[in-house]
Each structure stands twice: as structure tokens, then as C-alpha cells.
Amino acid sequence: METREGGDVYASDEPQAQLQQRVDFCLQIHNESVKAMRYPLNTHKAELDSAVAARERERELAQEIEEGGADMDEEDDDWV
């Protein structure tokens, strides 16, 4: 039995062509999935408004705690 010796596959352009085909397929899938994504318009503005309101509430609460803490120190020291 005699076998024919195969040529060097890596000397040809075939591996590069296969890799390019795979990369093209992956890019096509990515581009189609990005196009399929739907985002409601201006929803980020509602999130920003709620974040600003939350920050304002935190400032007010911190101010009340500071004012209340100063009153407690002056009036009642034995509550602790």
C-alpha cells in the first residue's frame, strides 16, 4: 500500500480564507443582534431625574440629622 504525501496545508491560502469566513460570520451575527436591540427613547432622562431627587432627599435627611443631633446634644445627654 502506498500513500500519497499531502502538501503543506498552511502554505496555501485556505486557513486564512476559513478564518476570514468565521470572522465575517461572527461580525454578521453581532451586527444583526445590535440592530435587533430596541431601546425606548429618553428613558435615561427619567433615571437622571430620579437620581437627582434621591440626592436631594439624602441632603435634606443629612441636614435634618445634623440639626437634630445638635438639638439632642444640647437638650438630652442621657438618652444614649
Automatic annotation (TrEMBL):
Chain residue ranges for the region called Disordered: 59-80
Stored InterPro entries: CSN3, PSMD3_C
Pfam families: Rpn3_C
One example of a Gene Ontology biological process annotation: regulation of protein catabolic process
GO MF annotations, alphabetized: enzyme regulator activity
Domain 26S proteasome non-ATPase regulatory subunit 3 C-terminal: 8-71
One Gene Ontology cellular component annotation held by this UniProt entry: proteasome regulatory particle, lid subcomplex
Biased composition (Acidic residues): 63-80
PANTHER family (alphabetical): 26S PROTEASOME NON-ATPASE REGULATORY SUBUNIT 3, 26S PROTEASOME NON-ATPASE REGULATORY SUBUNIT 3/COP9 SIGNALOSOME COMPLEX SUBUNIT 3
The name this protein goes by in its record: 26S proteasome non-ATPase regulatory subunit 3 C-terminal domain-containing protein
Source organism (scientific name): Tilletia laevis
